[in-house]
Amino acid sequence: MNTLLEDFRATLHSIWQRRWLALAVAWVVCVLGWLGVSMVPNTYESRARIFVQLYDPLAAQVGINDTDRKAAIDKVRDSLTGTLNLERVIRSTRLGENITTRKQMDGAVAGLGKAIKINADQDNLFTITARSASMRYSDGENARLSRDVVQKLIDIFREENQNGGQGEMKQTLQFLDQQLANRQGELQAAEQRRLAFESQHPELAQGGVSLIQRLEQSRASIRGLDADIAAAQSSLAAIQAQVASTPQTVAVAGPTGGLRGQLAQVQSDLAMMRARGLTENHPDVITARNQIVSLRQQIKADGNSGVASGTPNPAYSSLESIRAERQANLQSLQARRAAAEGEIAQITSQQFTNPELMQEAQNISRDYDVLKSQYDKMLTDRENLRLKGQVVSARGTAKIDVLDPPVLPRAPTAPNRPLLLLIVLAGGIVAGIGVAFAAGELQSSFSTTSKLERSTGLPVLGAISQTLTAEGAASKARRTRNFYAASAALGGVFALLLAMEFIQRGTIA
To answer: Residue 31's beta-bridge partner residues?
Structure first.
C-alpha cells in the first residue's frame, strides 16, 4: 500500500515537473476543440399542432363518411413531404435563394425532407416539426426559417384539404360525362330501332311494354275480373231474391189504414231492410216477418171485410232500380273480361303465327329497357358525385384547427454547446496530463530512491535534496505564478465562450 501511494506521488511529481507541457497541450486541444464546436451550426426547431375535425353533418348527409374523410386527410398528410410540395416550400422561403439549377433544387428538396417530420399523435391530431441548421444563415435567420417552413406546411395542408379530391372528382365527372354521352347515343339508337319497328308493326306497339308483360298483365286482369264477377253475381242474386219476395202493389182497405194498411207498412219496412242487406236471420227481419204472419191471420179472421184497393209499392220500385244497376255492373265486368281474353288470344295467335317477329319485338324492348336503366343509374351517380364535389369545394375535406401555431424558437435544440465546451475543456486537461505522464515515463530518470532500487536491483545508500538560492526560489515562484495565470486564462476563455453563447441566444429575435 505504501508502495502504491509512493508511486502515485511520484507520478504526480513527474506530471508537475512537466506542467508547462501539459498546459500547452491542454491549450492546443481546447483551442482546436472550441474552434470545432464553434463550426457546428445551431439547429433551431419550430413545431405546430393541428386538430382535424372529421365529423361534418352536411358531408354525412351527402354520403361522405368519416372513413372517406380520414383517408383523404392521410393522403394530404403523406403528400406534404412529396417533392412538389417541398419545392413549393423552398420557393416560398429563403431556402429558394440562389437556386438556379435542377440539381440544386433536388439537393434542397432532399435536405428539407430530412428536416421535416409529421407525426400523428392521434387519428385527428398531427404535429408538424421543421429544423433549420444552415451555415449560410445566422442563428436568427435559421430560427425564423424553421418557423416559416412550418407555417408554409400548414398553409399547404389547408389548401390541399380545401382542394382535396377535387382533381380526382373532376376527372371522375369527366369520365362519367363521357360514358353518359356514349350511353345516350346507344339509347337514342335503340329508341330509333324501337320506333321504326313499332311503325311497321303497330299491333305490337304498347309503349315499350313487352308482349310477355302484356300477356301477364291481361292474365292478372282476368283473375281480378273473375273475383269481381263472382261478387257481382252473388249480389245480383241476392237482390233478385228480394225483388221476388216483394209485392209490386200494396192492397189497403178503404182509403187507407186498418189491418191491411198495417200489413202494407210492415211489408214495406221488411223490403227496405232486405234492400239494406239485412239477412233473414236478423232480429228485425224476423220480427217483421212475424208481424206479417200475424196481420195476415187477423185479416183472414175478419173475413176480408172492406173494399180492397192496390197502390204501387215504393220498396219494389227501389229494389228494381238496384237490380238494374247491379245487372249493368255485371255486364260491364263480363265485357272487360271478354276484352282481356281477346287480347290474350291475339297475343297467343301472334306468338304462334310469327314467333320470329315476336322474338325481335321482345329483344328490341329488352335492349331499350336495359340501356334506359343503365343511363338513369349513371345519371343519378353523376349528380350525387357532383353534389359531393360541391360540398368538398365549399367546406373542404375536414375542418382544421391550429392548436399550437408555430413560434420563433428562442434557443437551439442542438448542439448543446455549453456541454460540448465543457467536454472539450475536460478533454484538453486530460490530454495535457496524459502527455506529461507519457513524457515522464519515456525518460530514464527516477523521482524516488525506492523506484531506483526496484529498477536496478541494487541498494541505494541515500539521496541529495535540491537546494535553491534566493534568486532560484524567486524564479521558481514566478514560473509557478505564470503557470497559474495561464491555467486561469484557459478557464477564463471557457467562461467567455459560455457567456458569448448565452448572450447570442438572448439576441434571437
So the answer is: none
**Alpha-carbon dihedral of residues 331, 335, 341, 346, nearest 10 degrees?**
160
Q: At 345, which helix (H) or strand (E)? A: helix 314-353
pLDDT band at 25 (very low <50, low <70, confident <90, very high): very high
DSSP 83-129: HHHHHHHHHHSGGGTT--SHHHHHHHHHHHHHHEEEEEEETTEEEEE
Quick one: 228 exposed, middle or buried, by C-beta within 10 A (0-12, 13-18, 19+)? middle
Per DSSP, the three-state class of 400 is strand
Q: How far apart are CA 368 and CA 379, in angstroms?
A: 16
**Phi–psi pair at 253, nearest 5 degrees:** -90, 130
* Residues 133 and 46: beta-carbon distance below 8 Å: no
Confidence of residue 29 (pLDDT cuts 50, 70, 90): very high
pLDDT tens-digit series, residues 453-477: 666 677 766 666 667 678 877 887 8
Helix (H) or strand (E) holding 250: strand 249-253
CA–CA separation, 424 and 418 (whole Å): 10
Note if the pTM is more than 0.70.
Answer: no
In this structure, the number of other CB atoms found within 10 A of the CB of residue 410 comes to 11
Residues forming a β-bridge with 116? 130
Q: Residue 431, class by beta-carbon neighbours within 10 Å (0-12 exposed, 13-18 middle, 19+ buried)?
A: middle
| Phi, psi (degrees; rounded to nearest 5) at 231 | -65, -40
Q: What is the pLDDT of residues 408-429, one digit of tens each?
A: 888 888 888 899 999 999 999 9
Q: How far is CA 251 from CA 40, 144, 297, 493, 504, in A?
A: 136, 122, 15, 149, 135
Distance CA 50, CA 120 (A): 10
Residue type at position 105 = M
Of 366 and 161, which is predicted with more confidence? 366
Q: How confident is the model at residue 490 (pLDDT cuts 50, 70, 90)?
A: very high
Contact 378, 186 (CB under 8 A): no
Look at residues 409, 407, 403 and name the one whose alpha carbon lies nearest to residue 49: 403
Residues in contact with 391: Cβ distance below 8 Å, sequence separation at least 6, in sequence order: 58, 59, 62, 64
